[in-house]
Amino acid sequence: MEANKWIGRPAGDIALSLSWVPLALAGHFSEGNHRVLGLLVACVMFLSFAHQPLTLPFVYASPWRLSSHRRLFVLSPAVAIVVVSVFATVSPVVIAVVGGLWNAEHTLMQRYGIMRIYGRRLGDSQAKTEKAMVMVWFAVPLLLLIARNDVTSTVNKFGVVTVAGSAVKILVGMSTEATVALPFVALAACYLAARWLAGEVRSGRHNPGKWLYVASTATLFAVALVDPIAGLVGFVGSHSIEYLVIVNRSIAGEARHPGRLGDVARIPGGRTWFFVAYFALISISFALLYYVAPSSLLLVVVLSVGALHFFYDSFIWKLRKPEVSASLAGVPPRKVAAA
Questions:
Q1: Distance of alpha carbon 131 from alpha carbon 323, whole angstroms
Q2: Residue 167: which pLDDT band, with cuts at 50, 70 and 90?
Q3: What is the rounded average pLDDT of the residues 282-289?
Q4: Domain boundaries, the chain
Q5: Is the per-residue pLDDT at 45 higher than 50?
Q6: Distance set, CA 30 to CA 43, 105, 230 (Å)
Q7: Are 119 and 320 in contact (CB under 8 A)?
Q8: What distance, in Å, lies between the first and last C-alpha atoms of the chain?
Q9: pLDDT band with cut points at 50, 70 and 90 for residue 329
Q10: What is the DSSP string of 82-135?
């Protein structure tokens, strides 16, 4: 059926695939005005921060999901707080490197995951190619940025004072290595794209939603080649938007289960009120942490929540799990390559 080729409605899928475009355009046209660009970056970074704690009610208000790894979910918050507190004091560089790499991997894996949601709907087996393709595509603009010695200027324009920004600064001295690696990585990017396209042609399946999303992802990284600021704003901002859409869809599936999240899903308009209450709480909490609490507490909270978000998301969204596949892909999981 045609409907199975889309995650939701075609118009919604198209909007999701292109969600980075207005953000990238805003970033591009704001580069000449430091104040406007700063405001745009602040909004994008707040949205990035705001989507991360959403993982917590998604786990702790869902009994079936909580019971799947109960001991891990009970112990992880305390472990995250202790580890972040220690390393933030003893070795901020370690926090910068690990946090930056983990953040990038997490964001890329979400893009890969959306490709697999489309793939699961028609039972394709392009998982391995798509995972490698997304990682290598991302590496090309990053290596070019380093090779051109543009890292510092880009970070300064972006006004990044986050862990991810600190991690990028460490790459400043690697321009020679990046210059050597860039042509090989670029060739690998082209090869993987050709291999993916050949696989789609051989399969005989027509999946317009997936094709648009893959093409949109390729275009995003191409934009980052010529305008790193626009690419970075689009990359970071669209990740948060996609996550909110995915969680909203998954909450609807909670109506089949008992628990607080299931109760929300069963109430008419419950998901809308859930997000209104969630963003109100996050806004108040962030304001208190930013303006009232010590900066050290803000750092520990932000990094601890981020670590839990990255860690939990690495396994709670696995499409090989029947409940996750049914919620996101809309069909029972088929016997294809593991996503």
A1: 22
A2: low
A3: 91
A4: 2-325
A5: yes
A6: 13, 27, 9
A7: no
A8: 23
A9: low
A10: HHHHHHHHH-HHHHHHHHHHHHHHHHHHHHHHHHHHHHHHHT---HHHHHHHHH
Q: Kindly report, residue by residue over 108-132, the tens digit of the pLDDT.
A: 999 999 999 888 887 788 889 999 9
With beta carbons less than 8 A apart as the criterion, state whether 235 and 103 touch: no
Residues in the chain: 339
| Averaged confidence pLDDT in the chain | 86
Look at residue 333 and tell me whether its pLDDT is greater than 90. Answer: no
Q: Is 80 helix (H, G, I), strand (E, B) or coil?
A: helix
Residues 97 and 27: their CA atoms lie apart, in Å, by 25
Contacts for 133-138: CB closer than 8 Å, 24+ residues apart: 133/189, 133/192, 133/193, 133/196, 134/108, 134/217, 135/108, 136/185, 136/188, 136/189, 136/192, 137/189, 137/192, 137/193, 137/217, 137/218, 137/221, 138/104, 138/108, 138/221
**Cα three-residue angle 303-163-189, rounded to 5 degrees:** 115
Q: Whose CA is closest to 4, among 154, 136, 118?
A: 118
> Among all chains, which residue has been given the structure tokens 């709907």?
121
CA–CA distance, 50 with 96 (Å, rounded to integer): 20
What pLDDT score does 338 carry?
Answer: 39
What tokens does 167 get? 């991690």
Residue 334 DSSP symbol:
P
Both tokens of residue 270? 């419950």
For tokens 């839990």, what's the residue?
A: 308
